[in-house]
Write a structure and sequence with these properties.
Elements: H1 3-20, E1 39-41, H2 47-50, E2 53-54, E3 57-63, H3 69-74, E4 81-85, E5 93-94, E6 97-98, E7 103-112, E8 123-127, E9 131-132, E10 134-139, E11 142-147, E12 164-168, E13 174-183, E14 190-191, E15 196-199, H4 200-234, H5 240-259, H6 261-267, H7 272-297, H8 304-323, H9 332-356, H10 362-388
Helix pairs in contact: 1-4, 1-10, 4-5, 5-6, 5-7, 7-8, 7-9, 8-9, 9-10
C-alpha cells in the first residue's frame, strides 16, 4: 500500500478517535448549583432557559445500610456522613478507617424544585453507566429503575452496568432521591459518573445526541476497518491493511462495551462478568495489533524482541481475563494500564526513530499519534487527581 496514503489515513483515524471524545465548552451556562449537606435547591433554576444539570455535590451517605423512603418518613436514621457525587466511596473515612471498593450503602438527596415554574409536567433522571456495581433508584418512594441486584454480600448481589432514563412527576416542591448501591466486584464503588436531571424532553434529547455521537464514531471507524480488511483480501502481500482493519474493529468493540453496554447485554450476554472479560480480551488484542501495525509500517526501525514481549503480555492478559475468578477480574485494570503504557512507549520510540531516519510518512504518522498519547496521559492524570482529592468528613 502507498505509504503516503497510509500516513494520511492514519492521521484521519486518530483525529476521528480524538475528536469523537471531545465536547464543546459550556461557556454560556450559568453557575451550576451544588448539593450541600444532602440538599440541592433548584427553586431559582429555570429548566427551560438554563437546561438540564448534574446532581453534583454532597449527598447523604449511609454505609452498610439499605434504607427505603418509609424508614426516613418514620424516623431519622443515623447518617454516616456526606459524600461527594460523582466520586467513588473508596478511601472514604469511616470509624477511622478508609473504605475499599467493596460494600453497600444508601445515597440520599433532597431536591427543592418550583413545580409551578416547570416548563413541562415530567422530569427525568439520566442514570449513567458507572453506578458501581448494582443499584436501585427510588424517587419519592417509587421504584423507578435498577441495574443488577442489590445485596449486602457478593453472593446476594448481581453486578450490571446499564444506563437508562427514569421519568417522574414531582408531587411537591420537595423531591427525595434514594439510591441503594452494592459493589463487591469493582475497584471503585459508588456513583462514579454524574446523574443528570432535566425535563423529560431535554434528557431524552441529550441521550439521543450522545448515542448518535457514539454510533457516528463507531460507524466511521467500523467502515474504515472493514474497507481495509477488504483491501487486504485483494492484496495479501501487504499486511498493514489487515492490522489496521483489525485494530479499527477492536476499537469499535471496546467503545461499544464502554459506552453502550446495554447493546452487548441484549444481543450477547447480560452478565457483567462476561462483559468485563470481553472488554479485557478486546483491549489486550488491540494493544498488540496496534504495535503490530506500526511494526509492519516501519519495519526497518522496529524491534522484533519488543514485539515478542508485547505478544507475551497480550497472551498473559487474555489468559488472566478468561481464567481468574470474577471478583478478581477488575484487579487486572492496573496490569492492563501498564500494558497500554508499554505499547504506547514502544510505538512512540518506533515513530521517533522513523522520523529520525526520514522514513516516508513518518512525520504525519507521529503527528497523528501524539494527540492520542496526550489524551491517554490526561485521562490517567485526571483519575489520579480524583483518587487523591480529599473526601467529605464524617459528621
Amino acid at each position: 500500500m502507498n505509504d503516503r496514503y497510509m500516513g494520511r489515513l492514519l492521521l484521519l483515524i486518530w483525529l476521528v478517535l480524538v475528536l469523537g471524545g471531545c465536547t464543546p465548552a459550556d461557556s454560556g451556562q450559568p453557575t451550576l448549583p451544588q448539593a450541600v449537606n444532602g440538599v440541592l435547591d433548584l427553586r431559582g433554576w429555570n429548566f427551560d432557559q438554563d437546561g438540564p444539570l448534574n446532581l453534583n455535590g454532597e449527598w447523604e451517605f449511609y454505609w452498610e445500610q439499605l434504607f427505603t423512603s418509609r424508614e426516613f418518613a418514620d424516623s431519622t436514621p443515623a447518617i454516616t456522613g456526606m459524600i461527594h457525587v460523582p466520586d467513588t466511596w473508596r478511601d472514604y473515612p469511616v470509624n477511622g478507617q478508609s473504605l475499599d471498593g467493596n460494600g453497600y450503602a444508601t445515597y440520599r438527596l433532597t431536591v427543592y424544585i418550583d413545580t409551578a415554574a416547570l416548563p413541562e409536567k415530567f422530569l427525568a433522571l439520566k442514570m449513567p453507566v458507572s453506578v458501581n456495581s448494582a443499584h436501585r433508584l427510588t424517587i419519592d418512594g417509587q421504584l423507578l429503575g435498577s441495574a443488577g441486584q442489590v445485596g449486602p454480600s457478593a453472593e446476594t448481589m448481581t453486578a450490571e452496568h446499564r444506563p437508562y432514563i427514569a421519568v417522574f412527576t414531582p408531587a411537591a416542591d420537595s423531591v427525595e432521591i434514594l439510591l441503594q448501591i452494592s459493589s463487591f466486584y469493582q475497584y471503585q464503588g459508588g456513583i462514579v459518573e454524574p446523574v443528570a436531571l432535566g425535563t423529560q424532553r431535554q434528557i431524552q434529547q441529550s441521550n439521543e445526541e450522545e448515542v448518535a455521537s457514539d454510533f457516528f464514531l463507531m460507524g466511521s471507524v467500523f467502515i474504515i476497518g472493514l474497507y481495509h480488511l477488504m483491501l487486504f483480501l485483494l492484496r495479501r502481500r501487504d499486511r498493514s491493511p489487515l492490522y489496521l482493519g483489525l485494530f479499527c474493529l477492536l476499537v469499535v468493540g471496546v467503545t461499544l462495551l464502554l459506552t453502550q453496554p446495554q447493546i452487548f447485554a441484549a444481543y450477547v450476554s447480560p452478565r457483567w462478568d462476561i462483559q468485563v472479560r470481553t472488554l479485557f480480551l478486546l483491549g489486550s488484542f488491540a494493544i498488540f495489533v496496534q504495535a503490530l501495525f506500526f511494526h509492519t509500517l516501519f519495519w526497518q526501525d522496529a524491534s522484533a524482541w519488543a514485539l515478542r514481549m508485547l505478544f507475551g503480555v497480550m497472551v498473559l492478559l487474555a489468559s488472566l481475563a478468561l481464567l481468574v475468578p470474577t471478583k478478581t477480574v477488575p484487579t487486572l485494570v492496573l496490569s492492563f494500564s501498564i500494558s497500554v503504557a508499554l505499547s504506547n512507549l514502544y510505538t512512540l520510540i518506533l515513530l521517533v526513530r522513523a522520523v529520525v531516519y526520514r522514513r516516508a510518512e513518518a512525520r504525519i504518522s507521529l503527528l497523528g499519534y501524539i494527540p492520542l498519547l496526550v489524551g491517554a496521559i490526561h485521562q490517567y492524570l485526571r483519575q489520579v487527581d480524583e483518587k487523591t482529592e480529599p473526601r467529605s468528613k464524617i459528621d
